[in-house]
User: Which sequence fits this backbone?
C-alpha cells in the first residue's frame, strides 16, 4: 500500500497562474479569430451574389438564343432580373416548351446579383465588378 503524503497532494493539478495564462492565450486567439469569421461570411455572401448574377446572365443569353428576349428595349437591370426570376417558356422553335428562368431568388438576392450585371446593346452581361 502506498502512503500519500501532504507534499504529494499539493503537486497535483495546475496552479492558478498557469490557468490564468491559458485563459489569456485562449482570449487572444479568440480576439484574432472572431473578426476573420465575419470576413469569411461576407466573402461567401459576395460569392453567392456573383454566382447568381452569372446564372441570370447565362439564362438570359440562352433564352435570347431560343427566341425569347427578356431584355428587349428595357435598360433597367432590376426589371430584367425580376423577369428572369419569373421565367418564361419558349413558344416555338427547337426549344419549344423549354423553361428559361432562375426561380427561387428573393428580392434581396435579386438586388445583390443585379449589382454585378449591366445591359449593353440589348444584352444582359455579367461585369464581375460591383457588389455591396
Assistant:
Amino acid at each position: 500500500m502506498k502512503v500519500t503524503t501532504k507534499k504529494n497532494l499539493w503537486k497535483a493539478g495546475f496552479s492558478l497562474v498557469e490557468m490564468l495564462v491559458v485563459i489569456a492565450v485562449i482570449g487572444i486567439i479568440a480576439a484574432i479569430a472572431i473578426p476573420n469569421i465575419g470576413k469569411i461570411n461576407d466573402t461567401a455572401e459576395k460569392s453567392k451574389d456573383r454566382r447568381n448574377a452569372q446564372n441570370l446572365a447565362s439564362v438570359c443569353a440562352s433564352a435570347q438564343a431560343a427566341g425569347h428576349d427578356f431584355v428587349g428595349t428595357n435598360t433597367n437591370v432590376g426589371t430584367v432580373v425580376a423577369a428572369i426570376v419569373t421565367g418564361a417558356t419558349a413558344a416555338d422553335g427547337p426549344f419549344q416548351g423549354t423553361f428559361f428562368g432562375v426561380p427561387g431568388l428573393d428580392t434581396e438576392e435579386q438586388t445583390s446579383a443585379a449589382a454585378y450585371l449591366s445591359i449593353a446593346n440589348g444584352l444582359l452581361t455579367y461585369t464581375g465588378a460591383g457588389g455591396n
Notes: The chain has one domain: 14-126.
